C-alpha cells in the first residue's frame, strides 16, 4: 500500500497553474481573504520567520499570499513562480511592499549570486521531481544561519499526492540542523475547515 502511494506521488501530473491562477485565491488557505484564516497564517509565519527583518525567498509563490504576510511583518521578500499568470497576481498583491516578484523555476530560481535568510516554500515541493537535488540547491541559496520554512502535506482522496513529513525530514537530515515538524492538520483556522489529512510545516536551520 505504501509502495503504491509512493509510486503515485512520484508519477502525479502537476496541475496547469496558469489555468488555476484566476480562481486560486478562492480556497481559504490560498487567498487568505477570511480575516480569521489570515490571522492564523500570520501568527504561524511570525513564529517560523526570524524576529528581525530578513531576506525571504518564497519559491512557487503562487498569487503571493504568504509573501504578502512576510512583507507585512517587515521582511524583504523575493517571490518566484513559474506561472506568468500567478506572478502577475503576486505582483499586484505585493505592489507597494518591499518585495520583488520573478518569473522562473523554483528548482533553479533566477537570483544569480544572491543569498537569503529564509527559503519559504508552501505546497510546491510535492510537484517537483528530484526533491533531494532541489533541496540541496535551496540549501546553497541560504546564508549561514539561515533556515528552511517548508509547508507541505499529503492531500486528495482517493489518490493522495504530496510529501509525507517523514520523507521530507529524511531528505533534510543531511542538509540541516534541528529540523522541527509542526503538525497543522489539527488547526481548522488555517484551512477554513476541519481537515483529517496530513498537513505540516518543517522549520530547519543550516
Ligand atoms: C499549490 S500552489 C502554492 C502557491 C503558494 N506557495 C501558496 O502556498 O499559496 C503551487 C505553485 O507552485 C508553482 N510552481 C509549480 N511548479 C513550479 C516550478 N517548477 N517552479 C516555480 N513555481 C512552480 C505554481 O505555479 C503554483 O503557483
UniProtKB/TrEMBL annotation:
<feature type="domain" description="Methyltransferase type 11">
    <location>
        <begin position="57"/>
        <end position="150"/>
    </location>
</feature>
<dbReference type="InterPro" id="IPR029063">
    <property type="entry name" value="SAM-dependent_MTases_sf"/>
</dbReference>
<keyword id="KW-0808">Transferase</keyword>
<keyword id="KW-0949">S-adenosyl-L-methionine</keyword>
<dbReference type="InterPro" id="IPR013216">
    <property type="entry name" value="Methyltransf_11"/>
</dbReference>
<dbReference type="GO" id="GO:0008757">
    <property type="term" value="F:S-adenosylmethionine-dependent methyltransferase activity"/>
</dbReference>
<dbReference type="Pfam" id="PF08241">
    <property type="entry name" value="Methyltransf_11"/>
</dbReference>
<dbReference type="GO" id="GO:0032259">
    <property type="term" value="P:methylation"/>
</dbReference>
<protein>
    <submittedName>
        <fullName>SAM-dependent methyltransferase</fullName>
    </submittedName>
</protein>
<keyword id="KW-0489">Methyltransferase</keyword>
